[in-house]
Amino acid sequence: MNESEKRRQRLLQETRQLYSDKGMIPAVHPRYGAVYHKLYEKDEAAVPGSTFGIRLLLCCFLFVLFLTADRQDQKILDVSSDQILEYVTQDTDVAEVWKNL
């Protein structure tokens, strides 16, 4: 390999490194960003955490608490399960609530 071929080879490698997208993260929708980072990034500290597990556990706990109170006809903080059901199924005008804020 002569000097000219070596120089061309070196320039080709430098150009590939310059325009390579291996180090860059492609445009990813924010909804899928955490999944992409978890799969392809090596730095675990850069991955944002998710609170889905905590929220799911809290919802399950509140649902079990509601079912228990309903079956045993108990009141929790002076509120019965019938009152909770009434408030949850009550039709609310969101526009009116928004104006009152």
Specify Rg, calculated over alpha carbons.
29 Å
What structural class is derived from the secondary structure elements?
A: mainly alpha
Number of strands: 2
Could you describe the largest sheet, including whether it forms a barrel? 2 strands, antiparallel
Strand order, biggest sheet?
1-2
Uncertain regions spanning at least 5 consecutive residues: none
The general outline is elongated
H and E string: HHHEEHH
Beginning-to-end CA distance, first to last residue: 78 Å
Helix content: 55-70%
Q: If helices are DSSP runs of H or I spanning 4 or more residues, what is the number of helices?
A: 5
Subunit arrangement of the protein: single chain
Mean pLDDT: 81
What topology does this entry show?
Elements lengths: L2 H16 L11 H11 L11 H20 L3 E2 L2 E2 H9 L4 H7 L1
Summary tags:
mainly alpha; 2 strands; 101 residues; 4% strand; two-stranded antiparallel ribbon
Task: Give an account of the 3D structure.
The structure is a single chain. This protein is mainly alpha-helical and 101 residues long. It is 62% helix and 4% strand. It has five helices and two strands.
